[in-house]
Design brief:
The complex is a heterodimer.
Chain A: E1 3-4, E2 16-21, E3 26-33, E4 42-48, E5 93-96, E6 99-100, E7 110-117, E8 134-142, E9 147-149, E10 153-163, H1 174-182, H2 192-201, H3 214-227, E11 241-251, E12 255-257, E13 261-262, E14 268-271, H4 272-278, E15 289-291, E16 296-300, E17 303-306, E18 312-315, E19 320-322, H5 326-329, E20 335-338, E21 344-346, E22 355-365, H6 375-380, E23 397-400, E24 409-412, E25 430-434, E26 441-449, E27 452-456, E28 459-460, E29 464-467, E30 470-474, E31 482-491, E32 494-502, E33 505-509, H7 512-529, E34 533-537, E35 540-546, H8 550-565
Chain B: H1 2-21, E1 32-34, H2 40-48, E2 49-51, E3 57-60, E4 64-65, E5 73-78, H3 81-89, E6 98-100, E7 108-113, E8 119-130, E9 133-139, E10 150-155, E11 172-176, E12 182-189, E13 197-202, E14 207-208, H4 220-232, H5 234-243, E15 252-259, E16 262-267, E17 272-277, E18 284-285, E19 288-293
Parallel strand pairs in B: 5-10
Antiparallel strand pairs in B: 1-17, 2-3, 4-5, 6-7, 7-8, 8-9, 9-10, 11-12, 12-13, 13-19, 14-18, 15-16, 16-17
Classes of the chains: A alpha+beta, B alpha+beta.
Chain lengths: ~575, ~300
């Protein structure tokens, strides 16, 4: 028991209680609705993680769209990360989809529940319980009328919904819906529950998880490929039940919420003392695991790859280059994730005998999500997003690929030369894919994870702008790279698997740095193949962290780096 | 050489007959006029295999011979049927009507007419679903269009070798010109399988057409094609020609065709082709030359 407001006369209709699972880091909050006189047709729970202290929100960082590593100790909490239309002055405010047993879409009398992911590891000196930090929970309703869609819908959707043991309200999908509409809201769920369930039960997942967010699906997918142990997560949703749908056409549901109302339910405020008064030895707020620092993606700053023997462009002096056949040249940057930058913390208070720690990491992009979908986090976390300049030349000059004094050295290498074996990439299933609302594309394999396309380790193209009278190549722009991290470990005879997604720090490297990094990664591959530890837990150096699938994952990167360092 | 003498004689006859009958300034007529109708056969012919006035091959423009024993079946590599359609449509003069041969299919039928509006040949485009062939172009009579009996669009990936273009856009090549000796030509289009690349030369000085030969100047077909290419990235090409010491701008450039009492010139910035009176007037313009090249091993 984490806390209970039941039977407190001073809190009329404040019928909350919560259980905390210290192994999962999940706070499950139950609420009994006594007054159903609310407006709106759907509802969700808004959890405001407070604003008084910048340093004591660590436990909740896994509940955000992108997890935040421990090196971010002083974040601005005045950034509105929730998108247009949401009146929020706080940094960390998330919406949680409730579990509901009623078929009505509106809030109705009876029990409802939702989970707060508090699995992010919190160091002892950032103890939330003693910090005085507050969590505000309020039930929010939303009316269909208050949603503005900017996108277009052209589709034929047919299918059926069949409920599980408990019938579910369509409103349980509200979090997903908000996520889609707000562009950033709803990806607050993580995969820990699903992943752990699989591992603990030892059987494929055959239930419908409440926490089956995108991070889970994508990261699990990566893990599946590597383990050749396919999950059966074919119908995950945020409600108990199953939707079978066939869809044809394109759906663009970009938009925003124009109004957002509260209702008559009493909001609550939690503090560490509330928890400690219920259970003096509560582990709530301590979390389970987190990264020590931002993962690092490197982009080579002095190399440009292309398919043709040579080419030329006119230099316009403003970061653009006249390049008539830019499409045919397949001009690309070299980017790769440094797996050694993944540094892990695991709560050794909860898991004192932690062992067999492994990490599997990959990076990629969501090409169908509007460009810039990570920008608010990037800004919040002060992550670098540099530009790869093709030329420092003067306007009206000509860049010739073979010139010795070019800022970027041109290397001919076909885009089809580099395939990831572990992700079963072939010329047949890889293609050129454009990033939504951007001028740049990727070459890679589309992975459809629960409706969202993802590309693992994409080859990143220089942007191309086209008008009626110009075809311009542009200096390299950094896309919304996302890093997927799967962590597994053993404790007390059980195996635990967690997965989250993070945003990387992007660093430019060139010259000898590239050669050194290539040698480092060759050594990394060797260590991975020999099952040696890559590094150790940051908070317990005696526990090594292995990357058993690292050699397979890094193969494509090594192929590219070998080519450019030859 | 025969063609040059022939054309010189032709121009001389035109000039003599009109200079003797029209002496007053007001009788000179307009200096220039729109070209609204083309010899559609000639236009098409010169977009496949350019020929001179005697019917001799000047250069191949589109299509490559792949069958060693059949030099009139020409192949073109494309990515898909849409690209094949786009290329096919680009071969015809602006006044040519392209009709759907079969409703709701990609098949097309084009009647090529002479300046009198008389149909000389009918060209058929037929989509073919037989890998790697995507479409075939055939001719009803087969004798009007020279040096080609059939054009076959095949998937570029099925092209039989890994040859690449010897020149890429912006490359220079020093080559003989009509009257300026060896000069820098600029690559405006790289070669692709079955689609020849284009090198273009802009003359170093403007010339009076009246005493010049014209057969080496660009055909209207190639000039139109060049204009279409240049307009897609105009400023870049301006820079490329600047680097070659030439000026690419919005003026008219002499090309190779006639419309009494004038000679054709093209404005590359928008593709407009006008005729300019060379009989009663003596305009000076730069001329353009275009030659093709194919991919190489």
């Amino acid at each position: 028991m984490a806390f209970s407001f039941l039977n407190r006369e001073s809190f009329d209709d404040c019928n909350y209680f919560a259980l905390y699972n210290r192994y999962l880091g999940i706070l499950r909050v139950f609420y009994y609705v006594t007054n159903s006189a609310t407006t709106g047709s759907e509802y969700s729970f808004e959890v405001d993680l407070g604003s008084t202290s910048k340093d004591n929100k660590f436990p909740f960082y896994h509940s955000l769209a992108y997890s935040i590593p421990l090196n971010h100790t002083s974040l601005s909490n005045t950034v509105n990360m929730l998108g247009k239309g949401i009146n929020s002055k706080f940094t960390f405010k998330s919406f949680f989809s409730p579990y509901i047993a009623m078929t009505s879409t509106a809030l109705s009398k009876g029990w409802t529940a939702f989970d707060i992911n508090a699995s992010a590891y919190s160091p002892a000196d950032k103890n939330w319980l003693t910090s005085g930090e507050q969590i505000h929970i309020a039930c929010r309703t939303i009316s269909e009328k208050s949603i503005t869609l900017n996108g277009t819908l052209s589709a034929n959707i047919s299918g059926k919904y069949s409920s599980a043991e408990h019938s579910a309200s369509a409103s349980s999908g509200v979090s997903s819906m908000l996520s889609t509409l707000g562009g950033i809201l709803g990806d607050v769920r993580n995969s820990s529950l699903a992943a752990i369930n699989k591992q603990v039960t030892g059987s494929p997942v055959d239930v419908y998880f409440y926490y089956a967010g995108v991070a889970c699906n994508v990261a699990s997918f990566a893990y599946d490929f590597l383990t050749q142990n396919k999950y059966a997560e074919n119908a995950t949703d945020s409600m108990p039940g199953k939707i079978e749908m066939s869809m044809t056409g394109d759906i663009d549901l970009s938009g925003y919420i124009t109004s957002f109302s509260s209702n008559l339910l009493t909001p609550i405020t939690l503090t560490g003392s509330t928890i400690l008064n219920t259970n003096k030895s509560s582990n709530f707020g301590k979390g389970v695991w987190n990264l020590a620092s931002d993962p690092v993606v490197y982009v080579v700053d002095d190399c440009i790859l292309g398919d043709v023997r040579r080419f030329s462009m006119t230099v316009n002096g403003d970061g653009t280059y006249g390049c008539t056949d830019a499409d045919d040249y397949h001009l690309r940057m070299v980017s790769f994730l440094d797996p050694t930058s993944i540094k892990l913390n695991i709560n050794t208070e909860i898991f004192p005998d932690v062992s067999d720690v492994t990490v599997t990491c990959n990076y990629g992009v969501y090409p169908d999500v509007k460009k810039g979908h990570t920008s608010k986090y990037v800004s919040l976390l002060s992550l670098d997003r540099p530009t790869v300049k093709i030329s420092d030349g003067q306007a009206n000059s000509v860049y010739k690929s073979g010139d010795a004094d070019n800022k970027l050295k041109y290397i001919q290498a076909s885009h089809t030369d580099f395939m990831s074996k572990v992700f079963e990439e072939t010329k047949d299933n890889c293609k050129l894919i454009k990033q939504k609302d951007a001028n740049y594309s990727y070459y890679g394999k589309l992975v459809n994870c629960e409706g969202k396309n993802f590309i693992m380790s994409p080859q990143l193209y220089f942007p191309i702008k086209k008008t009626e009278t110009s075809i311009l190549l542009c200096d390299g722009e950094m896309p919304d790279f996302v890093v997927l991290v799967n962590v597994s470990f053993k404790s007390d005879g059980r195996t635990y698997i967690f997965s989250q997604r993070f945003l990387p720090q992007i660093k430019l490297i060139k010259g000898n740095e590239v050669k050194t990094k290539y040698q480092d990664l060759v050594a990394y591959k060797t260590a991975s193949e020999s099952k040696s530890a890559i590094n150790s837990l940051q908070n317990k150096s005696s526990v090594g962290v292995k990357h058993p699938h690292g050699a397979a994952c890094i193969q494509k990167t090594l192929d590219i780096l070998k080519k450019i360092t030859e | 050489m025969k063609s040059i003498r022939f054309f010189t004689a032709f121009i001389a006859v035109i000039m003599f007959s009109f200079m003797t009958s029209c002496t007053k300034e007001e009788d000179k007529g307009p200096e220039q006029g729109d070209v609204t109708s083309f010899n559609q056969v000639k236009f098409f012919q010169n977009n496949i295999v350019q020929i001179d006035s005697l019917g001799n091959i000047v250069q191949r423009v589109n299509g490559t011979q792949l069958d060693p024993v059949n030099d009139t079946e020409l192949y073109i590599g494309v990515e898909n049927i849409e690209e094949a359609i786009e290329i096919f449509k680009s071969w015809f003069s602006p006044d040519t009507e392209i009709k759907a041969a079969v409703p709701s299919t990609a098949d097309m039928k084009v009647e090529l007419k002479d300046l009198n509006g008389k149909t000389q040949e009918t060209v058929y485009f037929k989509a073919v679903d037989k890998t790697p062939t995507l479409a075939e172009v055939s001719f009803e009579k087969g004798s009007v269009i020279k040096y080609v009996s059939k054009l076959i669009f095949i998937k570029e990936s099925a092209w039989p070798n890994n040859a690449q273009s010897p020149y890429y856009v912006g490359d220079f090549e020093t080559h003989d010109t009509y009257e300026d000796g060896k000069q820098k030509w600029v690559c405006i289009k790289k070669a692709e399988p079955g689609q020849n690349g284009l090198m273009m030369y802009i003359s170093s000085r403007s010339v009076s057409y009246g005493t010049k030969y014209i057969t080496e100047f660009a055909s209207p077909s190639l000039a139109k094609q060049a204009s279409s290419i240049l307009r897609k990235n105009w400023n870049s090409y301006v820079t490329y020609f600047q680097k070659a010491g030439r000026t690419l701008d919005g003026s008219y450039y002499w090309i190779n065709d006639t419309h009494f009492p004038g000679i054709y010139a093209i404005r590359l910035s928008d593709g407009d082709i006008d005729w300019f009176d060379i009989v009663f007037r003596d305009p000076y313009k730069h001329y353009i030359q275009i030659r093709t090249f194919g991919i190489v091993e």
